Amino acid sequence: MFMMALNSSPRKTWNTATLLQKALEGAAAQGADTELIHLYDLQYGVCRSCFACKTKGGPSYGRCATQDDLTPILARVRGVDGLFLGSPIYYGTVSGMMKSFLERLAFPYWTYTDPPQSLFPKRIPAGLIYTMNVTEDLAKDFGYGTQFAVNEGMLRVVFGAAESLLSCDTYQFEDYSTVVATRFDPERKAKRRREVFPHDCEKAYAMGVRFATVGTSF
Ligand SMILES: Cc1cc2nc3c(=O)[nH]c(=O)nc-3n(C[C@H](O)[C@H](O)[C@H](O)COP(=O)(O)O)c2cc1C
What we know:
Layout: E1 2-7, H1 15-29, E2 33-38, H2 70-77, E3 82-90, E4 93-94, H3 96-106, E5 124-131, H4 136-141, H5 144-159, E6 160-167, H6 186-195, H7 197-214
Parallel strand pairs: 1-2, 1-3, 3-5, 5-6
Antiparallel strand pairs: 3-4
């Protein structure tokens, strides 16, 4: 069993990466081999709407024809037994790197049939892990749930199962006293980091355990 995590924060040891690491630890505890890939290490572009992935009898049918650093990663995704996709929320949605990744990952497998079907070769669980500054209540008020539902629905069609984990009100800066960020109360943020973030880590770990246990048998 092989589980892959993709981090679309530029920060390799912060909130998003930590939660992904926990999910992989959970999967590894069930015997899975794991790998964490930092998308910001790669040079890749967006979906160019070339439709090579949808061209009848074409050499790239069901695959992304764009050749760049994402090409080998997308090829390896075909062999995974579970995926964890982690993103910070940037202006109300996933980071640009994750948006581009999702387009390139999902669209080639997504058929323009009614209903849409998947060309992905097997059924695997996919987990979306989001981290954000806002509280749970503000995330609701800002309507972030709509974005999360779209991503989850897309991955459910492509991979068979998808779920989301939200880590809210994250600790963002090494030292709040060095940045202009009067909106945040550093002590309250630090308290949240101490008291709530560990539970988010537990939830990520549990997701990893669950994915490795369930595998493709859901
Ligand atoms: C460019 C940028 C835009 C952001 N926009 C939002 C936002 O719209 N909503 C939010 O809740 N947090 C926002 N944040 C905060 C991050 O989502 C949050 O700190 C996240 O946990 C960072 O993840 P990381 O620690 O893994 O890098 C933004 C951060 C950056 C750098």
